[in-house]
Amino acid sequence: MKQFSRRLCSLTATLILAVVLLVPMACATTRYSAYFAVTSAVAYAEEDGKILIEADVCATRTMDEVGVKSITIYEKQSDGYYDDVKTYTRYNTSGMIATNNYTHFKSLTYQGTIGKKYYAEIAFYAKNSDGNETLYCDTNVVTAVSVP
């Protein structure tokens, strides 16, 4: 009986150790999305009130369409809330979507008002024969300045 008890404890300890070691490995290989490997959205304040928006996307594999579906610029109002002041879409702005590719980069410049705060919401888009996905990401907040 003692031998059976030792084997049971040994087997239990081995199983617990295996689970503890395997769970982090499984989590590390789990993707956030079936379509997006990496996305990045950044805003920069440039001279004369210009705001530069950069959006970069890398899909998990080659897509029929990949890129940016829309970029919406938000401006901080006197009440402290942000209102959308401009929206660029794939239909009214060139170069937002790439075809038959796995990566895409888009940058654009918005003319802001000096002293005002801005950020952008980026709608990343990927489509293949299995379906499509849109992933939303906000940039950092920047203040429009006269000279950076």
Strand content: over 45%
Tertiary shape? elongated
Major sheet attributes: 7 strands, antiparallel
Task: Tell me the series of helices and strands, N- to C-terminal.
Answer: HEEEEEEE
Query: Assembly state here?
Result: single chain
Distance between the termini: 79 Å
Tell me the number of helical segments per DSSP (H or I, 4 or more residues long): 1
Helix amount = 10-25%
Radius of gyration: 24 Å
Give the integer mean of the pLDDT values: 84
Unreliable residue stretches: 11-31
Walkthrough of the structure:
This protein is an alpha+beta fold. Helix content is 19%, strand content 55%. Strands 1, 2, 3, 4, 5, 6 and 7 form a 7-stranded antiparallel beta sheet that branches. The radius of gyration is 24 Å and the shape is elongated.
Outline:
The chain has 148 residues and is α+β, with helices and mostly antiparallel strands.
What distinguishing features does this structure have?
single chain, 1 helix, 19% helix
Ordered list of secondary-structure elements with their pairings:
Layout: H1 2-29, E1 36-45, E2 50-76, E3 82-89, E4 97-111, E5 117-128, E6 131-138, E7 142-143
Antiparallel strand pairs: 1-2, 2-3, 2-4, 2-5, 5-6, 5-7
